[in-house]
Automatic annotation (TrEMBL):
Coiled coil: none annotated. The lineage of its organism: Bacteria, Bacillati, Chloroflexota, Chloroflexia, Chloroflexales. This is ABC transporter related protein. Its main location: membrane. PROSITE patterns: ABC_TM1F, ABC_TRANSPORTER_1, ABC_TRANSPORTER_2. GO terms for cellular component: plasma membrane. Keywords: ATP-binding, Membrane, Nucleotide-binding, Transmembrane, Transmembrane helix, Transport. Residues 1-69 form the ABC transmembrane type-1 domain.
Amino acid sequence: MRALLIFAIFIPSVNLMAAIGTAAVLYGSGQGILAGWASLGMLAAFVQYTERAFQPIRNLAERYTVLQSAMAASERIFGVLDTPEEIRDPEHPVALPRPVRGEIEFRDVVFGYDPAEPVLKGINLHIPAGQAVAIVGATGAGKSSLVALLARFYDVQQGGIFLDGVDIRHLAQHELRRHVAAVPQDPVCFSGTIASNIRLHSQEMSVERMRWAAELVNAAVFIEQFPDGYDHEVRERGSNLSVGQRQLLAFARALAFNPEVLLILDEATSSVDTATEALIQDALARMLRGRTSIVIAHRLSTIQHVDRIVVLHQGQIVEDGSHAELLAQRGFYHRLYHLQFAEEVGR
Ligand SMILES: Nc1ncnc2c1ncn2[C@@H]1O[C@H](COP(=O)(O)OP(=O)(O)OP(=O)(O)O)[C@@H](O)[C@H]1O
């Protein structure tokens, strides 16, 4: 607003002054010519001098406007950078026992964005190393919050979350993130090459490692179709990639450092074609195999790849078992399955 105000007032004022200056010179010199003490050449010269005198002032006004916009933008950037950290590293971080196995335990976890209104109310969940678990439940049941806690985007208010027996609050954040990777619901792509997008967490990653990840999750299929392959330029937010391609790229990024624990927030809308959907499902099956995984499953096709299903309802675990077991119970899962998933089967 400040920049616009200056642009709207300052520049026209300078132009007005320049016009008045030129008019004054024309009038003065015109009088001089009539009186005989000035020549036509002198008039032309003075008009030019006036123009030259005002040009730098005009330039200055324009630069000042640019400066004001830049300052407004930088205020916002520094505002974000100065946001105080809520999650801090412990003073004496504990190292995970080696080799890291990826066993997860939620013990009496209570959490709420507003502590007075808990979203998760006493969660107890043990996931042995290597098991793939799907979390299902109605919207707002607390599925994403459960995953956000394990990635330590927030801290629990009561209870604790343990990775290989160590409370994640006792781990350095880089240690936790080295072993727990998350694929968000709407993966972000940055402008740069495909390679730099896969290597987002560590640009030093070897080319072999990057290619291994891309091949494992079927991303190599589309990357190799670009004439410049891994050097293909991705536009800001991945606008020159399809939804499915962005998803595969996000899988490759998460898998590139071969994490022991994988968190996947499944996309609710399946806006990809059947061939891409098959590629994604195949990639998912390979990623989950033998790796501790928690998948927020919105699609039935995702559930097919997991060992176990946990049903969340209003912040509590109400059912836990295999697909067949839960269907036989004829409870929440049975209802959800018929409400949400049956239509998918029919499609
Ligand atoms: N950042 C936040 N700040 C405050 N409240 C939040 C925040 N994120 C989620 N909530 C609230 O917490 C509750 C649980 O949300 P959560 O996103 O965990 O549900 P969900 O089961 O993942 O739902 P969905 O399937 O729609 O993604 C909801 O009532 C939601 O409004």
